[in-house]
Amino acid sequence: MTMTPRSNKIIFLVCAVPQTLHRRAAARNMYVSQWFRSARELAEREADEWLVVSERAGLVGPEESLDPDFTARDGCFQIPMTLEKERVFTQSLFEGLLPRLSQGDMVVILAGKFFPSALEEKLLERGISTFAPFRELDFVQQLHWLKQA
Predict the structure, then answer these.
(1) Angle at 65 between CA 63 and CA 71, to 5 degrees
(2) In the chain, which end has fewer C-beta atoms inside a 10 angstrom radius, N or C?
């Protein structure tokens, strides 16, 4: 995947998945599904920085150590959140991302269709572009997209 024109900085958000190791590990290694491995490889190849987005932990750096018991309920945004949970989660992500970003940067969101679209709106208001290729794709289509990228 080549994004043109190149923005100032590209940050990828890769959603956490339910399939995890059964021991403590760095976030980049904790999630073991083919989907996550493919998304991580793309992020490592294309991004200036990438972060795992966990429904339980929020933004997690790839080298941050995670406990499998803590990550067990992550689901890659395949089911909707309550409105209040989505509002709080969106604000938390926004506050975590904002210090890393400047106007003209881009955030690529590799997450399921129920990832809070309000985050994209908040970033766009700050002049930060977003790309969420999986918004309308089912799981099989997402895997296919990742293999083609």
Answers:
(1) 115
(2) N
pLDDT tens-digit readout, 111-120: 987 888 899 9
CATH of region 10-148: 3.40.50
Alpha-carbon Rg for the chain in angstroms: 14
Residues with pLDDT less than 50, the chain: none
**Residue 108 dihedral angles phi and psi, to the nearest 5°:** -100, 125
Q: Where are the domains of the chain?
A: 10-148
Burial class (CB in 10 A: 0-12, 13-18, 19+), 6: exposed
Range list of H helices, 22-116: 27-30, 34-46, 68-71, 83-97
Q: Residue 142 — φ and ψ, nearest 5°?
A: -65, -45
CA angle 140, 6, 8 (to 5 degrees): 110
